[in-house]
Amino acid sequence: MSRNRKNSAGFTLIEVVVAITLMSLIMLTLVMGLRITANAWHRGEQKLEEHARVFTGTDVVAQQISSAAVRIVVEIRGTDKTPVKVVAFYGSPSELRFTTRRSWRGERSRAEYMADYSVVRDAQGKQQLVINEMPLTDDDSVLRALRLRAPANGEAVGDPADRIELAYFEPATVEKPAGWVSNWEPKDGAELPLAVGVQWTRGNQRQQTVFPVAINHVVKVR
User: Fold this and answer.
1) Whole-model pTM above 0.70?
2) What is the SS3 assignment for 2?
3) Cα separations (Å) of 122 from 127, 200, 213?
4) Which of 24, 112, 121 is nearest to 68 (CA)?
5) Rounded to whole angstroms, how far apart are CA atoms 19 and 17?
6) What is the number of helices (H) and of strands (E) in the chain?
7) Per DSSP, which regions of the chain are E strands?
8) pLDDT for 53-98, tens place per residue?
9) How many Å apart are CA 32 and CA 24, to the nearest integer?
10) Distances in Å between the alpha carbon of 3 and those of 7, 11, 13, 14, 89?
11) What distance in Å separates the CA atoms of residue 209 and residue 211, rounded to the nearest whole number?
């Protein structure tokens, strides 16, 4: 009778194999679960960083556009050297150039900057909004910045899209109501659009961001 108790006190080989197999399956499930959780956490952090980067970029764009300053200079044109007033603000569906009191990079070395927002195409064939800026010192620097081609080492804002278009909200006049226009080129007056719109098109989805322009009546004529 004591011999039977001794034999029944241990585990059989089959029981040990089954126990090891179950423990291995449990450990494998835990490892896979931890790996999935870590990957999901990493993807979540990447999305948060992307959203933060896009939000920060558009926030700086909003501050720079809202600081747009009316700047009028006189340019001598033609052989008869006729003086022509030039408003330092130009807008098209693919480029926006204007004077502003706020630097995109947070610089404070100059009182004004010429900001250039250009729609460029990347290596993958997508369009990207790229920002450049040039410090201004006097009226001649304003004219040079208006003529200068935007450098290629600007900073991209937002994610690439199939199509990016700029638009400008025109205030109401006696002849026509307020509305969006695709081009903005003021003549002698110091008028600026009420807002600048950027429309991103990705497939069938369209997203438009509107940046109000707080008009600063700083007119400088040489």
Assistant:
1) no
2) helix
3) 6, 15, 29
4) 112
5) 5
6) 3, 11
7) 72-77, 82-87, 89-91, 95-100, 112-121, 127-136, 155-161, 163-170, 179-181, 195-202, 205-212
8) 444 457 778 888 888 877 777 777 666 656 666 667 888 999 998 8
9) 12
10) 6, 15, 19, 21, 103
11) 7
Q: What is the pLDDT of residues 110-145, one digit of tens each?
A: 778 888 899 988 888 899 888 888 888 887 878 777
3-state DSSP call for residue 205?
strand
Q: Is the dihedral of CA 182, 171, 185, 151 positive or negative?
A: negative
Residue type, 205: Q
3-state secondary structure 84-141: EEEECEEECCCEEEEEECCCCCCCCCCCEEEEEEEEEECCCCCEEEEEEEEEECCHHH
Helix (H) or strand (E) holding 144: helix 139-147
